[in-house]
Amino acid sequence: MKVVGEAILSSAVGLLFDKLGSSELLKFARQENVFAELENWRNELLLIDEVLDDAEEKQVTRKSVEKWLRDLRDLAYDMEDVLDEFATEMLRRKLMAERPQVYTTSKVQNLISPISTFLSSFITLGGVNFNVEMGSKINEISRRLDDISTRQAKLGLKLELGVGQCGETFASGGRASPWQRPPTTSLINEPVQGRDKDKKDIIDLLLKDEAGEGNFRVLPIVGIGGTGKTTLAQLICQHEAVMKLFDPIAWVCISEERDVAKISKAVLQAVSPNQNIDLMDFNIVQHSLGEILTQKRFLLVLDDVRNINSYEQWNSLQIPLNCGEKGSKIIITTRNANVARSMGAYDRCYNLRPLSDDDCWSVFVRHACEDENIDVRKKLETIHPKVTSCCGGLPLAARVLGGVVRSKLHDHKWEDILNNEIWRLPSQRRDILRVLRLSYYHLPSHLKRCFSYCALFPKDYEFEKKELVLLWMAEGLIHQSEGDELQMEDLGANYFDEMLSRSFFQPSSNNKSNFIMHGLIHDLARDIAKEICFSLKKDEMKNNKLHIISGRTRHASFIRSEKDVLKSFQVLNRTEHLRTFVALPININDQKFYLTTKVFHDLLQKLRHLRVLSLSGYEITELPDWIGDLKLLRYLNLSHTAIKWLPESASCLYNLQALILCNCINLTKLPVNIGKVINLRHLDISGSIQLKEMPSRLGDLINLQTLSKFIVGKHKRSGINELKSLLNLTGKLFISGLHNIVNIRDVKEVNLKGRHNIEELTMEWSSDFEDSRNETNELAVFKLLQPHESLKKLVVACYGGLTFPKWLGDHSFTKIEHLSLKSCKKLTRLPPLGRLPLLKELHIEGMDEITCIGDEFYGEIVKPFPSLESLEFDNMPKWQDWEQREALFPCLRKLTIKKCPELVNLPSQLLSFVKKLHIDECQKLEVNKYNRGLLESCVVNVPSLTWFYIGGTSRLSCLWEAIATSLTALKTLQINQCDELACLGKHGPGLKRLGRLRNLEITSCKVVESLEGQRLPRHLKYLNVEGCPNLKKLPNELGSLTFLRRLRIENCSKLVSFPEASFPPMVRALKVTNCEGLKSLPHRMMNDSCALEYLEIKGCPSLIGFPKGKLPFTLKQLHIQECEKLESLPEGIMQQPSIGSSNTGGLKVLCIWGCSSLKSIPRGEFPSTLEQLSFWKCAQLESIPGKMLQNLTSLRLLNICNCPELVSSTEAFLNSNLKFLAISECQNMKRPLSEWGLYTFTSLTHFMICGPFPDPPWDSKASSLWKLLCWRTVLSSSLLYQTKDCHPRLQGFKSRIVLF
């Protein structure tokens, strides 16, 4: 059914009822003598509301009704704009009356923006003192409303019986369903693809006997429409084990039904079809059903359950079902996880995921060409990726699409189906979307509008929960009833969770904190939102493939490009009523993007109805003063920009709810009068490292919930007492500049102890510990900053007191999981942190005066640190002793100790269960007769240790003797800056004992001369030796490492050669870098028995050539760089893949850079598998014979630069498949460009040329050829690159080409 945004319309009208019923607004309307107009609006809308159902049904067949609904929707939006402007002016006047001092100072008066002078010049209009512009808008709205009412009468739209007054339909969300799903049965008529695991998992649950109070259990199958929930349930019902265990097995299709009596009758008839009873008597029905099920282990399937969403309904329905035998089961299929929970689902729902691409393809093929021959099936393979993309894992979509293709197989049109947008074909698209629309239909009206808003995002866009909730808030989509105790953010979170439970959203597979919409759900959102939401795609912006969008569009988004110019947004010229302008993704990384200032002045300045403006990620340094004219703006995101300050006019954005300035590293100040933005709820300035002081009167922002950072200033106007009025703060709070506090009473008034919604707290003093610091004052401040016991994370930095307050480490903080103490340089004792029952991560750093850790740290309890998993000590210069005691750290998994040069001993039980151990720059941790130290007394009995880093010690030999035989589970060993490595091979088998070791890294061991005596474990997979300048020999047993996959040798300047015995046969990657003394490479790598795939030799100036033989055929990439003495390349690079071979080998990348002695290339032809070929700075290279490049059908990149002696024939470059071609500084390549055959380069996307050619591009002889080349380049939607101009005229010519 074709529907004109019925949810958007009904919700919008419902919102208008609320606004027009506001007592404050009506009071202001009376004051301004426009009460009658607003009352008339409300009365007219009530009459229109009563005929909306009838209009939405008739629009399918009557274009005039569809047009009427569209006009009504636009009127509702415009009416809301006017009412919001009216409310904004009311708020402005209220602020002026309450805070006249803010508005009367000359400084502020000069900075007041146009919004602050709104309605400042009044004239008489019909006896009413009102602004001319607003009066005109009210008259225009009234005229349009009269027109809508007149047309309503002419169209014959009728009152919908049962619809109450005052917009009651909006509360229920009820409208006529556009399509009814056909009833289902337990019979299945086709094979089921890709559900074997799901079937097994559910059958296992059915056959399991769980202990419980009731006689039956509920197993819900939850998933989006079209995933095959019903089909899976049918499959399960026919399984032999299920049929044997359960009797009876009954199937009831519930769908729309919510009446318990009717459902009970249907269950009775399914269980016993031949029962002759009075089905009109509910009491008889339930008694009969109970009697029939008595002492029977039944299986009941309730299919497509939608409306059983209250415990009362379910409680009434389940009464007779409890008569069944223990072990009975009820399967329900539903799209809504909340329905499943309402029906007593145990454990968790079985969430049915979409099919894999392969399974989806199989379903498609079965329906598209089940009876066709193999040739037809092969033809279909060409559209395989497109089909799986369209279907998105939904078997229903694959089935429908297969049916469409099936009807086209023999009229030569099927190939065009997927090239068009299949889901835009009315009949096929309707088959899918009408199924999904059922889920949408059952949404409450407030959720329908939120869902349709998500059409703003492009397909596959990942979004965060909080991000979307803030956007919903800004658009006015979250309805907060009078007396509702929940904050808008909490309501929005509830909205989101409801949508998630109904499968409209699903967790992202890439990031657990992100969410995504299924592709077809996204299609549904776009179908519903239609012209209201518009998403401008990146390729459309770059290639000027712009659509003409309607002036009715209210929400627009776009994917930012590296450089966005005004022309990219010309499609938005007609959208003056736009409410949303968002650059995506909203949360951006460190990549830089640029936006022309013309977008501000020629586009954004005209969009006076904006609620949401997000320009995150652009290198914007300032905003224009007119930003304050966007009086309806509620969400402004400038995160990750180069903004330095906000104009003072931003203080007049009275409706602003969210100001996002995170990671604005150049931001130095906020608006002085930001306290006037009284609706601000979220101020995120995290990462704004140059912001040194907060503006005054920040405490006036009493609605503030997010204040990522508060900087205590040196002056009273930005003192900590500004926080006392911010009672709604939630989440994270960072307070810095605590050393500036002078009046302790100000801290007491803040009362963090009463802020139960603050979950993460950071307290920071100055890092400058000069003599002026007052230890007593800082302790008093710390005491009074005691947070609520619900705190989960605490960070304390640069505290200058001599002791910690008693509350730190108190056992009452039962929820704290993360604690960090940094640079508290004057403290001599740690607090009793062992008392914190849920502490999981503890980081202690820069405690200069700590010498001993003992009972005061454990908290004098029997089992301290019961939950601690990660413990880190860093930069503790005087710490010597850690007292031993029993039952320490039972859950510890990671221990890090760095820069503790005086530490001698640690508790022997410390590493009972540790898996990762990091020790760095702890010189005195050694084994001696009194205390055998960390690595003997602890690690010896720790088979759980799998990762070990040891660095910064010259006494490794003292440690290794004790631990060499004990690290039986070790998988990764990293040794850094340890000069005594000879000990590793002493005392028996050495490293060879580490049978599970897979990764060995030896770095920056500058004294080490040889690894020859080391005995490496045979199962080693990765060996990395780096930064050992005196190393001359590698381990002798290198060739016996049959499991080694990657070998990397870097910055070992005295290494001359590899061991002669052998080379690890299974090494896939060999990288040798900056080994200045290396004269030869391993001989054994030059044969086909080697498995080498990647070879890189770089910075080896002593290397003259490769060993005799051929490189293995498995080699795919060869990189040789900065080997000045290398005279020849290995022969194996020219071998071709054998004909008919299934081997995937063959060289793909050949890169030769900076080999100044290389004169020639081995004879033969380059392999046909070659994709990239580069020669750079090969001063003596004389030629690349043209025949070498022939038949390189895979070649995409050819780069020849700074090869002055190179002479090459024309045919060398005749390759129409090339995408990147660069020829530069090759003085001997003198053949005219017109003879190169460049016109054949139909795939070229990047082209660079620099050199003294006889007919340069600006020459008349080559001009036509050059134009043709540039024409082809532009046609391929690519860029034309010139790195160096050989003639002034070329630059101008290039500019014309770019604009072509």
From TrEMBL:
The UniProt record lists the keyword NAD: no
Cross-referenced Pfam families: LRR_R13L1-DRL21 (PF25019), LRR_RPS2 (PF23247), NB-ARC (PF00931), Rx_N (PF18052), WHD_DRP (PF23559)
Nucleotide-binding recorded as keyword: yes
Domain Disease resistance protein winged helix positions: 456-525
Domain named Disease resistance protein At4g27190-like leucine-rich repeats: residues: 878-1006
SUPFAM superfamilies: L domain-like (SSF52058), P-loop containing nucleoside triphosphate hydrolases (SSF52540)
Domain Disease resistance N-terminal, first and last residues per copy: 12-98
Domain R13L1/DRL21-like LRR repeat region: 720-847
Highest taxon, organism lineage: Eukaryota
Name recorded for this polypeptide: Disease resistance RPP13-like protein 1
